[in-house]
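Today's session is about reading a structure prediction critically. Students often jump straight to the picture, but the first step is always the sequence itself: look for stretches that repeat, for charged clusters, for runs of hydrophobic residues. Only then move on to the predicted structure, which in these notes is written as discrete structure tokens rather than atom positions. Here is the chain we will use throughout the hour.
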Amino acid sequence: MAENANYFAGLDIGGSTVKTVLVDELGEVAGEMVEVRSHVKDGFNATFGQLESALDQLTSAIGVGREAVKGIGMDVPAPSCDGVIWGRANLAEDWVGTNVRDRLSERLGGTPIYMTNDGNAAALGEYAVRRKHHGGLLLVSPGTGLGGGLVLPGGRAYEGANGLALEVGHISVPHREDDGELPQCSCGLHGCLEAWVSLVALRRRIGIELAKDENKGHPLNDGTSLEEKAFRLRDFAQEGDELAIWLFRQQAQILGHGIADLVRVFDPGLVVLGGGLAETEGFRDDYLGWVMEGFEERAWPIYLQSPIDPEQKTTRFEWAIGGDSSAALGVAFSAREMFR
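Below is the predicted structure for this chain, in token form.
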């Protein structure tokens, strides 16, 4: 390693683990990702101890001291603004109302820290790994819920005045259940996109469909939990099961509708799909095709192709490529831009 080189750390704090990386002044990853337990339910001081341990492992692996880290990027799995946690999520109570950014900076001897939420960090990571992309980027990430983030041209996340922007799962979509009711979302509202596009939503939809007379004999009606059925559904879809395909197609098309509304507002140019589906070769091609069906149904033509050049797509879709270290890499790159 170069003598007197400066490094920037990315700390991705999750409910169970912290994924951490180092990048140098040129934006190259230094060493390997280090992963430690997060201990977030034991309080922020317990997590701070884990962060220090990870930093020591990162720096010692490349033969430098912790003082070589000139800035840190950190993301948290909860709403926050200007370093202060606003909501508990899966954290211990002492995180709420605490400026954990400044507390950690003081503990580390004044090292400057940039902090954002996990959705923004994941979007920043997808931007960082696309070295030749300099436009906007909208990340939409179906998982247990539906997260996302928006990166502006040049590489800054759009966070909003209170750090609460881009709650993409909680825009309203014009879809109702068979009985005409709007599904309730985990946020307490009804009719949110996340109430249709998430693992939680998939469990609800499986329960509704398997209760119908025409599906009484379906092999998923075997007494296992809805959680287990949801995890098995993708295998059924890949094997050509009609019910499984219909459920995923419905979800993907509704996601496409939601993305069309987001694109109409932000016009990012590039939409990246993340979450577990990004790691499933084969099936994800079908899923993206269904997303595009929904998108093309609801998007204005100008968001599909340029009216000047019919060969130019105005909105491109790609799968996430950042992998497990994406969020940590995203905040590390942000720290590098801010503090070098």
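Discussion point for the tutorial: The CA atoms of residues 184 and 337 lie 41 Å apart.
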